[in-house]
Each structure stands twice: as C-alpha cells, then as structure tokens.
Design a protein that fits this description.
Layout (H helix, E strand, L loop, with lengths): L2 H8 L7 E7 L2 E6 L6 E4 L2 E8 L1 H9 L3 H4 L4 E5 L1 H25 L3
Parallel strand pairs: 2-4
Antiparallel strand pairs: 1-2, 1-5, 3-4
Helix pairs in contact: 2-4
C-alpha cells in the first residue's frame, strides 16, 4: 500500500479536524484540532502517530524546528489555508536566519 493511501486511511474518521498529515517510515504526522489515537495499524503494520495542535505546530516552526517536525515528512493531506500559513512561517524563519547570518558576517 502506498504512503499516501496509509495517510488518507489513517485520517479517514476525523478528516474534518485535520489540518495537515504526513508520513515518515513508521510515524504518522497529524496536525489536528482534536486529539487523535497514539497508534494506527494497517496491513499488520503499526504506525506511531505524532500529534500536534495547529497553533502548537506553528510555534514549533517559529522556533526553527522545521527540520524535525516538517521537512522529513512526506505530506499527503493538508488544508490549503493552513499550508499557506505553514509556508509563510517557514519563509519568514528562513529570511530571519539569512539576515542573522548576513549581520554576523559583516565586518
């Protein structure tokens, strides 16, 4: 079964609360307004669910933790408005990082 299908099957019961969902190996990332189960099982394979509330997830991105909580995951489901917010945050964090680096390298 494809990664995309696993993600979509995992969120099927509460898709209307999910803002973003992805997969990495045996972990599912689910950003949802409501609590989700800790595990999901399909085809005798068990997936650990990493859950974040939408505002908490944005705060992690603002703290520069995108390499831990966003970039490694293959995202297969998202709400368009929320993904725009995520991408805007990532862009602003990157611009701030570049500005800091530029200021450090100035004589």
């Amino acid at each position: 079964m494809s990664e995309k299908q696993v993600v979509l099957n995992a969120i099927e019961g509460y898709k209307f609360d999910v803002m973003l969902a992805g997969i990495l190996d045996d972990s599912l990332l689910i950003v949802s307004k409501n609590k989700v189960p800790e595990f999901y099982e399909e085809n005798c394979k068990r997936y650990r669910i990493i859950h974040y509330y939408p505002d908490d997830y944005i705060n992690l991105l603002l703290q520069g933790k995108e390499n831990e909580v966003f970039r490694p995951f293959h995202v297969y489901y998202f709400v368009k408005v929320y993904m725009r917010k995520v991408l805007d945050v990532l862009a602003s964090v990157e611009v701030a990082r570049m500005a800091d680096e530029w200021h450090r390298n100035q004589p």
